[in-house]
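Support reply, case 0932

Customer input (verbatim):
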Amino acid sequence: MRPVLLVLCAGLAAAQEDHSGHQHVVAGLGTVDLRTSCNATAQKLISRGAALLHSFGYEEARIAFTDAAKADPSCGMAYWGVARTWYHPIWAPPSPDELRAGAAALDQALAIGAKTRRERDLIQSLSVFYKNWQTVDHATRAKNYEQALAQVCDRNPDDDETAIFHALQLVAIGYLDPTDKSYAWQRKGSEILNRMLPSHPNHPGVAHYIIHSVDYPPLAELGLAAARVYAAIAPDSPHAQHMPSHIFTRLGLWDDSIASNVRSTQSAIAQTQRLHPGKGSFDQLHGIDYLVYAYLQQAKDTSAKKVLTEMHDLSGLDENQFAAAYALAASPARWALERHDWRAASTLEALPAWFPWERFRNVEALAHYARAIGAARSGDVAAARRSADEIASIRKAIPAARDYDWGGSIGVQWEAATALITWAEGKKAEGIRLLRVAADHEDAIDKHPVTPGALLPVREMLADLLLEDGAATDALKEYETVLKTAPRRFNATAGAAKAADRAPDKTKARAYAMQLCEIARDAETSRPELEWSRAYLVAK
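Our regenerated output:
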């Protein structure tokens, strides 16, 4: 994979060059090349819509494509664009209302038609995704769309824009199976994107989709160069400001992640004030989720609490979608769990009543999971059991999905809660055995791409129990396993320092203690683990 990284770096170094006279520079959003036969006014709007699409600015893209249709009623590609805004390949599958709207727009595109074979091919390929959406599952339609796009690419080998859309679809297919650790689909998409990069260094989709294609622990370093430039390519996009933090989080680069999401939340607030005055923004909440996670890793608890207050003060959003649901459920739970405030975790407030949780039962389970962890770790077995029962009930009620293994993920939550309850009841060996099973299951599934990380890695909780039980060497091994996929996590690093000291491995203990002090060099609050590390280094 190293040659791919070199190609990426070389391409990004030439980012100020524009290699094609027909590429369209869209102010604040990058350079795209979605040429059409529509009139000049419509073409300008289509270029803007395409640039917004590539940074997942779906609502504003829809406005641009709709305006293009008004500017040129004979422009079928404008309705193609509207239909494309209702399909979000990396996000959760479209709702029935979104599919209905997308299918209606696509029908208009088909009825109007297009003046070129390439445009007709693009319209026809998207119709494959919307065909029989009422009866054919999402994963099948997504794969059919990928195959249709591949055929369009074969017929139009010089059409880089379609190739970039195809690369995104390949990455999206990979997201449909989070248990596939070969990342074969993502690698196929990445190969296309890196081939496009030298001639499209300012293209928002190329940098963006490269990040998505390597947003996995063994590949994340390959996305660092793209992460460093994507925000500059599309400075007016809240998502472009946020997306680099996926790579920064994977690599434990907390300062970079914080800076990225501060910009993203500010951009999201400005966008929502423009489009939906008085509302909050789902992009804002998504950024807050990552901010809370990063702040807590650096013991910047005051900063984490500040953005949580911003979240708490919201009473409505521009769009009630999955990333917002996840942030609303996960961020308050992280505040308690990452600080090991078990009592606070066990008494988490109810989720905001204004949000439609009936549409997001899979996310609602997070709140019960946090309460179960908190109650079990604070010794309230009865409360922990009630929360575990709620998790089991939700798992039973949610339908099977092929976009992510929610049944498996929520099953891990129940397994971990049950293991902690068993431990709290005094059956320590059995509790550790059950927690190890849950940790293996969580590792096999991996996190959902929306979230910066698990509420608490199950393997980290396993290491905590092993350390409490006096098995320091085993605990150290588990902490180090966590740090391989989640580097520079505060609690795993702190645990590794203590476990190494008791193992005893004084060299490792000192190294981890030094790293913890570096991670939390600007800590805003005193945590016992940090004070232990500081004292340890002074004593040694």
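We compared this against your earlier run and they match. Two observations from our side: The beta strands are 24-26, 30-32. DSSP finds 27 helices and two strands in the chain. Please reopen the case if you see a mismatch on your end.
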